[in-house]
Design a protein that fits this description.
Low-confidence stretches: none
Radius of gyration: 21 Å
Structural class: alpha+beta
Distance between the termini: 44 Å
Helix content: 25-40%
Order of helices and strands: EEHEHHEEHHEEEEEEHEEEEHH
Strand content: 15-25%
Shape: globular
Strand order of the largest sheet: 2-3-11-8-13-6-5-4
Number of strands: 15
Largest sheet: 8 strands, mixed
Length: about 350
């Protein structure tokens, strides 16, 4: 196996130990045990002020208050474009390990191909391959980190990223108005909105009950749009992980979820969706996540505090600082958990044989 891919590991009968998660982190619900709790909202008529728009906006706001995640159909993104983007993504991951590793992003490169995650210091790896790159601001695009294979990738991705940025801003307008603000308020709070595309490929896994395709988390940014295939695997919780649901795949839909930035700007009114991805042993899965994030220097603080409420943040901070704190906290919690497990295992190993048997 060429180092850094899951190509050969996916064919083994036993899961490599670096992907095995502690029992409390393992999947509780199957990848195809679908739930219809996540709303599916048609955007047909969203521009019809005085007509359908009011009801559509009500549904979006209710979904953000209850879950922080919903699905949209009739969104106006051309089905041919969506099909082309999906086809090219599949073709990329079908390339040989050597071809994919030409875009290796390890060592701090900003964009490219990698297994598991671009985050440094992860204790347990996620069962996925990704290719990621930054598409906005346009002036900052580094095409050297965008795949050149398969043919047509750059042209299709440029159009795809433009259409999804437009859709994201339209959804943020709805939430801005619901907060009693100018419709551009949430978008303007991002200063100069970043957009990052992450294409996730989850190969068939020999022991999917022991691992995750993507560990539990909330997105740090403002709003995320996810295109997923029909296999299933995206899961969400709203009771701190006590119960999970698997989001029902809907052909041609985008799954929309709010991130930490959107949560803070609304003073906690809109939920930052707590989610993860599970894998399976029957078929591979593909998803394309488009993250709309604020500029690093953007201020993170509630835009409006309703009467009787207090700000959920003590003071304004930059998004760069918020992101740094979040990542540091997550890695520290993982490190402490690993140390506690090692200490427990050491004590168990030191026990007399009669105690272990008893």
């Amino acid at each position: 196996m060429a180092p850094g891919t899951l190509t050969e590991l996916a064919g083994e009968t036993k899961l490599n130990s670096k992907f095995v998660r502690d029992e409390d982190e393992r999947p509780k619900v199957a990848y195809n045990e679908f739930s219809d709790e996540i709303p599916v909202i048609s955007l047909d008529g969203i521009d019809d002020v005085g007509g359908k728009r009011g009801e559509i906006c009500r549904q979006i706001v209710e979904a953000c208050e209850n879950w922080g995640v919903f699905q949209v159909v009739d969104h106006g993104v051309d089905t041919t474009l969506v099909g082309d983007m999906t086809r090219l993504a599949r073709d990329f991951f079908a390339l040989t390990p050597e071809e994919k590793l030409k875009f290796d992003m390890s060592g701090g490169k900003k964009g490219g191909f990698i297994v598991s995650s671009h985050l440094q210091g992860e204790v347990v790896q996620d069962w996925r391959e990704i290719v990621t790159y930054f598409s906005y601001p346009v002036r900052n695009r580094d095409y050297s980190r965008w795949p050149t294979k398969p043919e047509g990738w750059v042209k299709v991705t440029e159009e795809y990223s433009e259409r999804l940025m437009s859709l994201a801003c339209k959804l943020l307008e709805v939430l801005s108005e619901a907060m009693g603000l100018e419709k551009e308020a949430l978008t303007n709070a991002c200063v100069d909105m970043d957009q990052k595309i992450v294409v996730n490929y989850y190969p068939k896994c020999p022991q999917p009950d022991l691992t995750l395709g993507l560990k539990r988390h909330t997105d740090p940014g403002t709003i995320t749009l996810l295109l997923q295939d029909q296999v299933g695997g995206l899961q969400a919780t709203r009771d701190d992980g006590k119960t999970w649901i698997t989001v029902q795949p809907v052909e041609g839909a985008f799954v929309v979820n709010l991130g930490d930035h959107g949560h803070y700007l609304s003073n906690g009114r809109f939920k930052n969706a707590d989610h993860q991805a599970v894998v399976n042993s029957n078929s591979s899965r593909l998803s394309i996540a488009t993250f709309q994030n604020p500029a690093p220097e953007a201020t993170v603080y509630p835009l409006k505090v309703r009467e009787g409420e207090k700000p959920i943040l003590e003071e304004p901070i930059t998004f760069a600082e918020m992101y740094k704190r979040k990542m540091s906290r997550d890695l520290e919690l993982a490190r402490l958990k690993k140390l506690a497990k090692e200490e427990h295992d050491h004590k168990e190993a030191a026990k007399p044989v009669d105690q272990i048997i008893a």
